[in-house]
Amino acid sequence: MTDTSSASTPSRRSLIGWGGAGLALGAAAAGGAVAMTRTGNDVDPAAAESGAAIAFHGANQAGIATPVQDRLHFAAFDVKTDDRAAFVQLLKDWTEAARRVTAGQAVGEGAYGGLAEAPPDDTGEALGLKPSRLTLTIGFGPSLFEKFDLAGRRPEALVDLPKFAGDNLDRNRSGGDLCIQACADDPQVAVHAIRNLARIGFGKVVMRWSQLGFGKTSSTTPDAQTPRNLMGFKDGTRNIAGTETDRLKKFVWVDEKDVDENSAWMNGGSYLVARRIRMNVETWDRTPLQEQEDIFGRDKREGAPVGKAKERDEPFLKAMKPDAHVRLAHPDSNDGATLLRRGYSFTDGTDGLGRLDAGLFFLAYQRDVRTGFIPVQRNLAIDTLNEYIQHVGSAVFAIPPGVRDKDDWWGRTLFSKEA
């Protein structure tokens, strides 16, 4: 990322760190690059290959229908302040920082050249790196609405997830008042973004849990090769494409028909379910190929559904075993329920018994959790794949609409009385 500070220019921030004055300076220094606005969710392939920036402003947040990047750093936070004004200011500070880092610029006055007696505004590890298609997406968890007199503004669709068959959830990897999803093609760029937002939020929020991800397991660009999960199978073949405006409207974006007076702030937003799914890869690796293919309902080489020749051939569900994963997860088996998936693989070392702590960090966006993830996950209760996986972390978030312009900020529609 490019640092906009100059060694010959004295710092104008206070000794207490990067704050309001730095925000104003940062916005002025950012120039036109930060003010880019998305007019659609697709990105020019050449721009994606070059590591170019994805526009921050738009009707919907970037990082949902945006072409899926290669790396993820996802973080959930708990709010520690009971000062509403201070928290709103944090959201504004975060928004300004997000504008800059997604444009490939340093936070505030940069990593060097400022006042020697104060910490720099930017941690500096992304200096010289491209924007790498970085997107930052914020969400608000159910527990946030217990704070700041927000209970009456909690959308009905933001339900607490029920306990599903086979869940073995770790509370230290679940929940959160809010989340930030950072996706980029360079892992250091994604980590840099989360690190700086956490630093700016010091004293007001604390990180509850986080997850690094690699190897996207779903794609929003169906013309590209379908990625594979850690079980070796192609994943997300029928995922919603970022260019499928009609399907996005039907299954992903909240609109005026979904809200009332108290939840109108969600118009243009979405709902996110995040699940950390541990894979018992050692057991899976000893499973015969035919059994693996029967469990998924697709062949391992091509990804073709049972009885078909090509990956994208329309599946004949009755040709699959009744407990095959594809059959149970298919919209035809769930009254049409369809999710936009943005999952990533993960490996977090070993579990102390010589087994890989590896699996899928599942991310799914939808218009309503009650008609999206919940019925699909309940239908998967008899999935044979459950013998090889276990859900160990879980969270649900309301994803507000996008930041419209330079005067807008994350969460304005929820917190501003004028919204």
Key attributes of the depicted protein:
nine-stranded antiparallel beta sheet, 20% helix, 9 strands, alpha+beta, disordered N terminus, 419 residues
In short:
The protein has 419 residues and is of the alpha+beta class. It is 20% helix and 18% strand.
Protein described:
- This protein is 20% helix and 18% strand.
- By secondary structure, it is of the alpha+beta class.
- It has one domain (1-419).
- A hairpin with a 5-residue loop joins strand 7 and strand 8 (356-366).
- Helix 1 (20-30) runs parallel beside helix 3 and helix 3 (84-102) packs antiparallel against helix 4.
- The longest helix has 19 residues, at 84-102.
- It is globular, with a radius of gyration of 22 Å.
Q: What secondary-structure arrangement, pairings included, does this model have?
A:
Elements: H1 20-30, H2 45-50, E1 71-79, H3 84-102, E2 135-140, E3 178-184, H4 187-200, E4 205-216, H5 245-251, E5 270-279, H6 281-284, H7 289-296, H8 325-329, E6 340-341, E7 344-350, E8 356-366, H9 373-379, E9 389-399, H10 412-415
Antiparallel strand pairs: 1-3, 1-4, 2-3, 4-7, 5-8, 5-9, 6-8, 7-8
Helix pairs in contact: 1-3, 3-4
Q: Helix-strand pattern, N to C?
A: HHEHEEHEHEHHHEEEHEH
Mean pLDDT figure: 90
Work out the helix count: 10
The fraction of residues in strands falls at: 15-25%
